[in-house]
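Forum: Protein Structure Q&A
Topic: Joint prediction for protein chains with partners

I've read a bunch of threads here and the consensus seems to be that you should model interacting components together rather than docking separate models afterwards. I'd like to see that in practice. Below is the full input, 1082 residues plus whatever partners are listed. Could one of the regulars post the assembled result?
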Amino acid sequence: MSDTDGAATDGLTDLGDGGAGAAEGGGRREGRRARGEGGGRAARQAKRAGAAGKAPAYISRKIGYFEVFDEEGLDLIERNADRVLKEVGIEFRGDEETLQIWRDAGADVRGERVHFEPGMLKQIIQQSAPSCITQHARNPERTVKMGDGHTVLVPAYGPPFVRCLDKGRRYATIEDFRNFVKLAYMSPGLHHSGGTLCEPVDLPVNKRHLDMVYSHLRYSDKPFMGSVTAPERAQDTVDMAKIAFGEEFVDQNCVVMNLINANSPMVWDDTMLGALKVYARNNQGCVISPFILAGAMSPVTVLGTLTQLYAEALSGMALTQLVRPGAPVIFGTFASSISMQSGAPTFGSPEPSLVLYGAAQLARRLGVPFRSGGGLCGAKISDAQAAYEAANTLQTAALGGVNFMLHTAGWLEGGLVMGYEKFVMDADQAAMIGRLLAGPDMSENGQAMDAIFEVGPGQHYLGCAHTQRNFEDAFYRSPLADNNSFEQWDAEGGLDMTARANAYWKKLLQQYEAPAIDPGVLEALDAFVAERKAAAPDSNV
Amino acid sequence: MSDTDGAATDGLTDLGDGGAGAAEGGGRREGRRARGEGGGRAARQAKRAGAAGKAPAYISRKIGYFEVFDEEGLDLIERNADRVLKEVGIEFRGDEETLQIWRDAGADVRGERVHFEPGMLKQIIQQSAPSCITQHARNPERTVKMGDGHTVLVPAYGPPFVRCLDKGRRYATIEDFRNFVKLAYMSPGLHHSGGTLCEPVDLPVNKRHLDMVYSHLRYSDKPFMGSVTAPERAQDTVDMAKIAFGEEFVDQNCVVMNLINANSPMVWDDTMLGALKVYARNNQGCVISPFILAGAMSPVTVLGTLTQLYAEALSGMALTQLVRPGAPVIFGTFASSISMQSGAPTFGSPEPSLVLYGAAQLARRLGVPFRSGGGLCGAKISDAQAAYEAANTLQTAALGGVNFMLHTAGWLEGGLVMGYEKFVMDADQAAMIGRLLAGPDMSENGQAMDAIFEVGPGQHYLGCAHTQRNFEDAFYRSPLADNNSFEQWDAEGGLDMTARANAYWKKLLQQYEAPAIDPGVLEALDAFVAERKAAAPDSNV
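Posted by a regular:
Agreed with the consensus. Here's the joint model:
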């Protein structure tokens, strides 16, 4: 641990401020709203809690990583992965162009199965893949870095359902999608607008990506993710990004990240390959992610899973670099395990944590940013199971050194459900992670020797000069935790955290104000979406 | 990460087995019981889940520590602590004998304030304090080690209230106390019976320690903690231990651990000093623990808090070594922070995590075992707040390298309440920590190359030979997590984790069978308790 630099100290203060603003939002603020009191100090504080406030755009880590393997262990995994790549090979299905790319690169292509000489993929990646990616946001103050100790916390991705305390579980709509864009925008602990925050199933499959990308650009100014469900939808994403950022800027800069999942074990399908090629060609970011439920899609052991996912990730990452050397790419993995009794996926348990720690080490050794983790859980509701499992995964991802933490907030039911209450609860945890990774303040003020000397044995620190100078930002303040006495908590209705979270996300949505957008850009986006929607009939494939 | 040795692999397997037995205990087992089905496979499994099963007696860590400070940072804290010890000093109140011990050791004693030359206390400790403590259990198979990578997970300590889903929050009784002894005994993730699991407030203050120590010895065979509320109660504890273990054995071996809290900042009171001296003289273990709510009892910063608690811990630990060189002693700290708005203690937040990581490093550098952490929370009920906060603290304690993890299970409401549901939920987390710290299996079977070669691209691993060989113990199985589909969960009543935990602890208590005890020992314990109770009138001071 070295001294924190000025920027980090600023980051700490800012997070504290965000927390402070938000801290009033729990049960007490709910009461205030019920009495019709708005505006004034509370409103100003709430504003500060929003994205428009001073929260840092991303985390710059000031403490080390938790590492489980030594170099020998990593060598073993790499050697085994090399054997898998050479002797078993990886399948690239239904995409002749990709097979030709591999032939041209000197791989051994037999049908759709591609075999690689040991070290070949690593060399391709290390030749051109950046160790750190800057993803530009529509608001330059929200531009993020991923890699080299920089971390970005991103909402959950992909759920077809949503859940809230009022209406229970139901299919997601575009209105839900917009709500989660707004909540991510308002959450100081989240640095990114995410991608498919939920599937707006009220819209046709072949057009909903237009509304999703539009919503990210219109209702937030944080960076976002694009569509990967078909190459032409990936192209739409790039085209809309060009409207927002300018054609040349997009060709030279990363403005959209995209989730490219392997079909584990050891298969890439044509949909993912199509999207990968569109984004890489356009110099946009790919998160190459083996999606693994160990025991079903990989061996039941930590090392076996690491071996396979490393082989898969190497093949996907190298492909991006062959399509366009230097294209931004992230070593991703979603790795959990299954119940060997029921086959159901399980979360927050120790084995996937070990996989995550190992994969993060492999990514750092390779020299690329890493994606994994998030607030994962198998719970159906935002109860203690949801929280234990989410916290276990979030802590692991934070300490292991994830740079792009997809699924940080909202995830329920193995990813089938985006939860409104879970979202703000996880976002609270996200803000804490920002604080944790900023590390301790080593300055003279941090050492607080004046306080110890002023107070002395048997006294308390509440009123001393050092405390007075520092109390505003000293400790993270959760907007959702209730730390009052039992009597006070009971008198205020004895609400559990989910009930407080319910009041909190409604408050945030009420206070939401859209960030400014250039009217010309907005008009062009509207026109693009209208034109693309008119160009083809609705379809649900 | 080096190769796991045979013992560790056994440990892994055993924990898995415990988990497996327990895994049936959730919603499904509840259903089974409702249909009147008992015995058979379920009963055998439940038995295995109990302490009588094969669960390892303690954790032998196979992975590294998460460390936040470099040597320079630790030097800075030590230098600052040395300045505090010399220039501010520590107060030892109302205990002339202790002051004389310090005078004899060459400290500068002015009234009750004692000042120490830099390095003096460290030298005293390093001369004789053991780096690893073996605490003997009544059942030799349950004897534990603490320090040098060995970790013991211990229930919560001290709550005057209990809570369960059926009866809510109420004062604790000796019946509750016995129940928690039994639950700790039945929990494979917990290695220790703890101490004041809850305050049996239905018994007189001056006699309840007799029933507590008796309950630990009678209803469990795991190691336990003694009374510290008065020197004569500490002596009663030692005397009862001598009945159970033999007089000479107790003098030569640690059979009871004891919690000695500092009155932070920088004060030791006569009660704690009295108990410390009794236990150290009898060669029994002292956990020297500054009890700190940062912002009130220490500065509002991480470094300031570490400086003060290190100074306090050094002074207490050195005292044990002056009383009896070589007496077992643990560097403890309970460190959380307070809300600077309300003064309420807060838990699971980032700043106390940084304090814990730093304190663990200071303890390792000093060469003594370390105590901190647990399933701490400020939540009133076992909701998501309880779980997020507990998981954050448990993960921090596990990765930071706590050797004696007091408060692992049951803690609610800042320690005022022992929760029945929270207890079994935390104990589930404890078992996962055991798995996590055992690390990955680096063996050929762990590498699973045969599985990858057998299965190949696009297939699944469920039926392959490697999976068949390993599925029983591959993944930790929680007895409380519900990973079923939404539809199945809903059909089974849509219970939250707390409701499932309620059924589970009742099941455990139903299945409880007392461990064997020598009839002569039991008779002597009964006689001792009866005699001591008769020797003085009841008193509530």
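The first strand of chain A starts at residue 59 and ends at 60.
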